[in-house]
Each structure stands twice: as C-alpha cells, then as structure tokens.
Design brief:
By secondary structure, the protein is an alpha/beta fold. It is built from 12 helices and 12 strands. The strands form 3 sheets. Strands 1-12-9-8-5-4-3-2 form an 8-stranded parallel sheet. It is globular.
Length: 315
Amino acid sequence: MVTLNQRLDEGAILVLDGATGTELERRGAPMSTGAWCALATEYAPQTLLEIHEDYIRSGADIITANTFSNARHMLEQAGAGDRVAHLTRQAVEVAQRARDRASGGREVAVALSLSHQMPMVPGDARDDPSLRPPPDVVFANLQEVVAAGCEAGVDLILLEMMSRPVHMDLALKAAEESGLPFWCGLSARSVDGKIVSYVWEEYPFSDCVETAVKGRADVVGVMHSNVHATGPALDILRRRWKGPMSAYPDSGFFRMPEWQFTDIISPADLVDEARHWVGKGVRVLGGCCGLGIHHIEALAHLREGSGPIAGRRAP
C-alpha cells in the first residue's frame, strides 16, 4: 500500500478489479440463497483463483477478496455462521496466491471487502427488516470479519455498498480499529431524477455522504450504483469531500441470489463515462456487479496521464 498511496498522492489513477461475486456466478459457481457468493470460496476455489488472476493480468492494482457476504448474520442464513474466520482467511489466501502467480512483480494490493449487507428477501434486491440484527451484534460481526482478514494479511479494507448511516458508522469504526488503510464506497440510485441512497426509502444519499466524510477513510467514492447515477452521485460527494474519489459502478440488476446480466454496458462506453469521472476527481476506477475482465482491461488504459489532486483526506 505504500507504493499505491504514493501514486494516489501524486495524482495517478489506480485500477480496482471488477466484480467478484457476479463473475463467480457468470463462470458457474453456485450462489447461496442466504449468503450469496460467500460459500463459493469453499465450493469453487479454483474458479475464484482464476478470476483474481485474470483481473491482475488485465491491469488491476487492487484485487478484492471474496468476503462481501462473510458477516456472521449473512453466513447464518446458509448454516455457516461458525465458518466466518475460515471463509475469510481462505478468501484472502486465494487472492494472495493469485497475486503471487499473476502479478509478475508488479505491486498489487489485496483488499478485504466489508459490507453491512443484511439477510435479503429471496428473489428481490432488498433486505428483510425482520432479520436485521441489533447494532451491537452487527458491529461484533463486522469486527470478526476484519480480525480474520487482518490475520490473513490483507493490505486494505474496502467498505462496500455503504448506504445506511447507522450501519456505516459501525463499519467505519471496525475498519479504523484495524489500523489498516481503508476506503469507503457509497451506493446510490436515481429515483424520479433525484440521487438517493441505495436504500432510498430510508435515507437520502446526502446522509451517507455526511457519515462518510466524518470518517477517516483515505478514499471515498461511489460503487455498486448504476452507471448513469454514478456521475451525479460523485458531484454530490465532491461538494463535501476534497480527497481522491473512487468509482466502480454496476450494470444489470439483482434478484437474490442471482445477478441479471441485462443491458450490460460495453467496455468502450464505460471508458467514456470514466473519463468524465476522472475530471471530477476520481482516482480509483473499477467495476462492480455485472462488470468483468474486459471492462477492467479497458479502464487500465486510463491509468496514465492524470494530474495532481487535493490532499488525501477531507478537510
């Protein structure tokens, strides 16, 4: 991370990988109706290894361990609540092995994905409020994932799909306690022409921004948001955040436990959008659900030629 942070300070563009969970699904790995992609680490480790390797060879500077759904309250839905530490360590180790095999000596960081994902309604893209644990349990569960990731030697923590401030605070605290660098990715939607939080029926996007900028993240950005909502969401974020931003959108839509690969944006069109995001201060580019190897390969061509930006933290 020392080298990557130095490149950020100098205004360079870093390339994050694309989707892990939906790429596993695309390649035939089984998805769990309770824990989505989490168990694929155990069921399809070779496929997961190949995905990480492909992203590295496509130009990714950061690859993301398959830990998005590893919180105990998610794994319990699949009868695997006692395997949090094991699955987290295994996911990190697979990513590290891919780096050893594919990086060719290039600096590549392994990130721990940390989300406040909650048990979801089958066949839908929303969680089930009746299954949300109380905040103290959520915090303990997030700490458990972070501890296992740190034990396995991750370089960075990615707070992903942050969209509910009450849970964002817990994720930010768990990440900061680790002592590792951490980045915060917010998720947004466009509803009736307005940019709102991904869980827009509960919180406005501005509340998520305010929560994020009060944390101590090195990078704050917009992720798992439709391509067309990403630019306007970045504009809202930039009004409050003066450090480097990240952008890694999704394409398609979700029906738990499967991603619908519908109207996926082309790599060329993604690059066109990304050029505008770089102009807004984005310095980390990648892809989320629905976006894969060819998208990252295309984004890697934007790595050079970026100019200096403001300091790495909010004032």
